[in-house]
Every structure is written in structure tokens, then in C-alpha cells.
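Field guide to reading this record: the first block holds the primary sequence, the second block holds the structure written as C-alpha cells, and the final block holds curator observations. Each block starts with its own label. This record concerns nucleoside diphosphate phosphatase, catalogued under organism Pongo abelii.

BLOCK 1 — SEQUENCE
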Amino acid sequence: GSTGTRVHIFQFTRPPRETPTLTHETFKALKPGLSAYADDVEKSAQGIQELLDVAKQDIPFDFWKATPLVLKATAGLRLLPGEKAQKLLQKVKEVFKASPFLVGDDCVSIMNGTDEGVSAWITINFLTGSLKTPGGSSVGMLDLGGGSTQIAFLPRVEGTLQGSPPGYLTALRMFNRTYKLYSYSYLGLGLMSARLAILGGVEGQPAASLHELCAARVSEVLQNRVHRTEEVKHVDFYAFSYYYDLAAGVGLIDAEKGGSLVVGDFEIAAKYVCRTLETQPQSGPFACMDLTYVSLLLQEFGFPRSKVLK
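BLOCK 2 — STRUCTURE
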């Protein structure tokens, strides 16, 4: 990712003629992201090795040779010049080849944005059990990363399929079924990239409140950047990554268990944090801007303020 590198170790059981079930996951994250080592490639190997050591401790020795190992890079490496990104990937590949795990020639790659959205859609629908029942209802997903943000869902309305711009629809075959997904990644609209764009703006005009000033600037950054589709109003969506962190940070959801909120909660929280920023600075210097950005981003996607997100 653009702000960190993480290892996920998945253990599945697969009953005969059924979809697999996730029985255990190990997760560890390190900061910063690989792209931070663009000018010192050798240093990137240390973090990767540390994460591989976690895998060695977790996976039984007898399974090492049969356990596939892949690295998927996201927006942080997409935003780097091609040559620098390739050097980093080559270094990771060297570390992978020296490991005891199963590595192929394509074990290290930069995901395109569509694949990132599709992978997250698969994940959330796998975990909610939606993939087990053919023709059953699926859920949509919202992912807010550092460099990019993704939206993906399975359209049921013909108008969505007809009205989607080129590049927004993708076919996916999995568990003997084909899905036609609406999936798009907005490079540069991740939270960290958006902060840069918002702060890089022209001198702000006087406004009645800090929230109004922030909202006006965010609206400029988002203008004509996002495709809106009506159908999102009627699809159940799960939101994660920075959406989760920001909601938990201001008490909209439980930091450990998650929860549900309505889209309008982000706006209410933004107005409160912006209003109390000087008297209660503990929420951090970016909280007013981040919450305002997320609130307006969700509205640009077409979500009404009353829409429930899980």
C-alpha cells in the first residue's frame, strides 16, 4: 500500500464440492510503504524479510514449499516513475526467491485499480457468505486508501450497465460463476493524495466557518472527478480502511468491533470537529479536513445522507 506494507496469511478449509471457508488469518503491518524506499532500494528488503519471518512462524514447516507467496502493490507504486517502481519490485522478487515459499515468475506485481476494487469486493462478499449462494444478494464495497479510493458492486439494474463509462465494468469468473462488476479506482483521491491536493489550493476566500471553507476547497478538488450511479442507493455497502479509521477516531463506530453509521454522520462529525478544532485539538490537525473530504466523496458517489454503511 501507499502508506505501509502488510502480510496476510490465510488458512482455508475446503469441504468437498463447497466454496472454501476461512479458518484463520494472521496480519502484520509495517510502515512506511515500499514507495518510501524509491531512492534507497536496498533498505526495502529489511521490512519484507521481517514480514516473511512472521509467515515462517505461522505456517507449519512442512507446508512452506506448497504455500504460494505473492506481493500486490497498489497506488503508492502506481504513482512512482516506472523505472523506480520496477527496481523496487525486482528487489522484492529477489527476497521472495530466496524464501522457502512457493513463488512464480509473476509473484510480484503492481495491481491495476480495477483489480484492487475487484479483490476487495471478493473479500467482503466471501467474508459475508454472499458467494456461497448462487444468485443470492451481494454487498458493495468502499475502500479509501492513501493514494487511491475504490468502489465496487454487482449491478442489478440495466441502467447502471448501460450508463457506466468505459473502464468501469469488468467481468470476473469465480467458483464456476461469472460476475459483471462495476469496479473503479480513483488514483489521486486516496486520503493522503487528497490532503495534498486540498492543501495545495489557491488562497482561500473568507468563509462563515472553517467547515464551509474546507468543504468549498474539497468540492473544487472533487469537481468532475467521480462517476455517480443511482444504484448505489439500493445496494448494501461495507466501507473500510480510512473510512473505518476516521469513523472510529471520532467515536461513530467501535474501534475494535466496527459497526454501522449513516453517510450523514460523517458530515455531522466534520462540522463538530471543525467547530471545536481550536479548543479540542486532540482529534489531530487533519481531522476536520479528512472528515469533510469523506463526507463529500460519499455524496459525490451518489450516497444519500440517510444511507447506512457497515
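BLOCK 3 — OBSERVATIONS
The longest strand covers residues 177-187.
DSSP finds ten helices and eleven strands in the chain.
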